[in-house]
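Is this the right way to post structure tokens for a design question? Let me know if I should format differently. Anyway, here goes:
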């Protein structure tokens, strides 16, 4: 056979090995654009500061002291039902006592720094996931994409939105567990091979811990159910439907059964449902001003804006994704939970963050290799990521600090309760007030066989919600805010007025948050008089009570001094306590805007107008 003649051309081929071509190629490859490494370094530096600003936020959850009080009570009495010992009306206990014991042990061993280290560890883990292997673990085939600026910025912005929920209280474990379930769903739907036994084992461990550490395991099992039903619907006409049904039934059974291993058993599902969908178990008016109210009824901040942006981006991404049928149902369910109850919003943020992280670089997903993006697109992505993280840094750095927030400082409350006798009960308005008073009073003795007890606190809103007592709790405070002292009949034929209920319960003290300005204002002309002026939780005693009269007279003198005397407000200097944002005294003393404005509002509500102006 004759050899085919190679055609000749005057055009030099691309693989020309002439000396000039080699020189040009070597020169081009040895001089990469400077903007790419500069942007990479800038992204890394800004990300480091953004993650640090999110991590270094003082502990500020209203459930902090209630969590610690329950844990201390459980340790002191070897009881897994600490709220039964702490609250007069409680009878069934809670499922999260094990988590409270762990949180309290960390606090007792390491102080507020121990809780801060837990927060820092969560942020470090999330940032490491954003930088290393996030696509490969979740099953995205484009895991070799070297530009990680977008996922890093997404995680930084999401963590900033989740910052109020990263304290070591039950909501933190709810957020972490939601992230794990979301990652499992995305990984499974991306076609990654899954070991069924390992999956069931990890699911069992997760829901076992979720029931003992968190309050929203109902959200987790809802995600498992909805994702499983979506897969069954998509595979209805295929041969995989039987195996998918077995996997679905096994997942739901394992999650449900292992969650029953907790101090209250099967009631964990009722408690979790009540806290997830509070609007279904109590009248909506009782939820006003709480975390369980609808998302449209709360004051919006950074978390809510990020939630809205993630919602828009997620639905747009689902419209162009081949996986939209698998994930749209879970997204709708999480949106429903979030919009009907604001307490579920961080869980929805976590689901959407994981969903977006697992989304491919382009939609729809193609089995063909994705062509590399142009240099300008990568640079624009880096610049937008830097802008987002700079925004996070600017928002978070002004509130950064170490330790516990000043609004959780119990020292002034200790002074107010220092001379209080161990008789009489105490009515508290919210979780922060209940927790701080319980912590200051110390552990109480367990109920004896005759039913007598040393508990002094009436109730705590979350325990009242799950036990069906929230209506009574809210009505009593509504009468206090409306100055309804004497008995009257409500529209539903129930008896109102605060005098008889408090007298029957032997209530000697009221504890209210200084944020409840209407209650403070309405208590001024009544027989209830404050025992302190500047505590985050204000204690009121009855005028004429011989036990509290000396303290009431002392506070009356303080009122005259701050309002009419030579008193001038000065920002407290750093003392190195756990309640100073500047823990180590590195910066000059300066007034913190939020506590200062809160103190001015309290003085104004107490009709100390000149003192309020002095503070401002």
């Amino acid at each position: 056979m004759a050899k085919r003649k190679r055609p000749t051309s005057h055009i030099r081929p691309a693989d020309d090995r002439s000396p000039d071509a080699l020189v040009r190629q070597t020169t081009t490859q040895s001089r990469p654009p400077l903007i790419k490494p500069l942007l990479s370094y800038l992204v890394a530096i800004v990300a480091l500061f953004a993650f640090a600003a999110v991590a270094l936020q003082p502990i500020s959850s209203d459930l902090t002291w209630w969590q610690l009080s329950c844990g201390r009570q459980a340790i002191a009495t070897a009881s897994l039902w600490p709220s039964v010992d702490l609250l007069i009306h409680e009878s069934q206990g809670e499922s999260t006592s094990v988590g409270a014991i762990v949180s309290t042990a960390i606090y007792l061993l390491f102080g507020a720094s121990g809780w801060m280290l837990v927060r820092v560890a969560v942020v470090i883990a999330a940032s490491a996931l954003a930088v290393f292997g996030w696509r490969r673990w979740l099953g995205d085939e484009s895991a070799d994409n070297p530009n990680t600026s977008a996922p890093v910025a997404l995680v930084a912005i999401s963590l900033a939105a989740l910052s109020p929920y990263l304290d070591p209280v039950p909501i933190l474990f709810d957020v972490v567990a939601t992230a794990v379930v979301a990652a499992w769903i995305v990984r499974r739907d991306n076609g990654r091979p899954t070991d069924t036994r390992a999956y069931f084992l990890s699911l069992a461990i997760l829901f076992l811990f979720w029931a003992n550490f968190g309050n929203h395991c109902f959200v987790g099992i809802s995600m498992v159910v909805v994702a499983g039903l979506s897969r069954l619907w998509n595979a209805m006409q295929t041969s995989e439907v039987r195996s998918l049904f077995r996997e679905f039934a096994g997942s739901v059974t394992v999650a449900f059964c292992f969650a029953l291993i907790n101090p209250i058993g099967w009631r964990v599902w009722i408690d979790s449902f009540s806290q997830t969908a509070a609007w279904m178990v109590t009248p909506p008016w009782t939820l006003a001003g709480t975390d369980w109210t609808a998302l449209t009824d709360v004051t919006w901040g950074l978390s809510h804006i990020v939630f809205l942006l993630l919602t828009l981006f997620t639905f747009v991404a689902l419209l162009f994704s081949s996986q939209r049928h698998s994930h749209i149902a879970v997204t709708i369910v999480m949106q429903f939970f979030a919009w009907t109850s604001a307490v579920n919003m961080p869980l929805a943020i976590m689901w959407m963050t994981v969903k977006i992280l697992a989304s491919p670089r382009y939609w729809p997903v193609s089995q063909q290799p994705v062509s590399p993006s142009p240099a300008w697109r990568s640079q624009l992505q880096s610049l937008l990521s830097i802008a987002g993280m700079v925004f996070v840094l600017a928002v978070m750095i002004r509130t950064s600090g170490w330790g516990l927030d000043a609004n959780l400082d119990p020292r002034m409350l200790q002074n107010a309760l220092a001379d209080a006798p161990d008789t009489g009960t105490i009515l508290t308005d919210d979780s922060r007030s209940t927790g701080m008073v319980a912590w200051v009073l110390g552990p109480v003795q367990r109920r004896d066989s005759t039913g007598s007890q040393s508990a002094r606190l009436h109730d705590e809103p979350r325990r009242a919600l799950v036990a069906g007592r929230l209506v009574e709790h809210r009505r009593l405070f509504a009468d206090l805010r409306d100055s309804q002292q004497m008995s009257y009949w409500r529209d539903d034929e129930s008896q109102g007025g605060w005098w008889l209920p408090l007298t029957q319960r032997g209530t000697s003290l009221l504890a209210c948050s200084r944020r409840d300005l209407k209650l403070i204002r309405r208590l001024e002309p009544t027989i209830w008089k404050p025992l302190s002026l500047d505590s985050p939780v204000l204690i009121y005693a009855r005028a004429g009570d011989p036990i509290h009269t000396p303290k009431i007279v002392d506070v009356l003198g303080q009122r005259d001094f701050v309002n009419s005397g030579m008193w001038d407000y000065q920002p407290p200097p750093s003392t190195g306590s756990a309640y100073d944002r500047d823990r180590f005294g590195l910066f000059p003393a300066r007034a913190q805007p939020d506590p200062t404005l809160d103190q001015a509002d309290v003085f104004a509500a107490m009709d100390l107008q000149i003192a309020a102006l002095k503070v401002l």
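Format looks fine. Someone answered above. Worth noting: The chain has a mean pLDDT of 82. Residues 34-168+377-403 form one domain.
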